[in-house]
């Protein structure tokens, strides 16, 4: 019975191993990527690394600051055919800081340029507003001059009308005087005619 129990245990274990092997997932094209950046402001130590895998090809780079103050940068690739290949380069940390300073100077220059552009835009807008105000002032001045001309014309017409009324009154007075003189002449003529008639009758 013990032997049968051991055989059953072995069979169940083999079945378990078989099912475990068959249930494993195999990735034929693995992919991953990671990156980190560690900086110590007290010691000035910096460590950076980036790596990514696409199938059998692994690419990455890492950099760290050496004790002598230089930065070591290692770029590497690895695959099944070519194996592991790395390219090591060194640069001064001061050069890196100068490069970053140059980048910041470029950024400030771009900000300065944008400030100049903004200032130019503001000046252009102010000039446009001043021109618009000048145009509106010129328009208002033209309207005022037109109003003055209209007032002067109306005054001239009124004066002409007054003059015409004065001329009309003078004409009426002249006609009245002429009629009065004509009436006097008619009366004188009638008196003379009557006198002549009386003289003829007396003779």
UniProtKB/TrEMBL annotation:
The gene is CUA3A. Residues 1-21 have a biased composition (Low complexity). The lineage of its organism: Eukaryota, Metazoa, Ecdysozoa, Arthropoda, Hexapoda. Pfam families: Chitin_bind_4 (PF00379). Residues 1-64 are annotated as: Disordered. Residues 127-202 form a coiled coil. PROSITE patterns: CHIT_BIND_RR_1, CHIT_BIND_RR_2. This is Larval cuticle protein A3A. One of its GO terms (molecular function) is structural constituent of cuticle. One of its GO terms (cellular component) is extracellular matrix. Residues 37-56 have a biased composition (Basic and acidic residues). Keywords: Coiled coil, Cuticle.
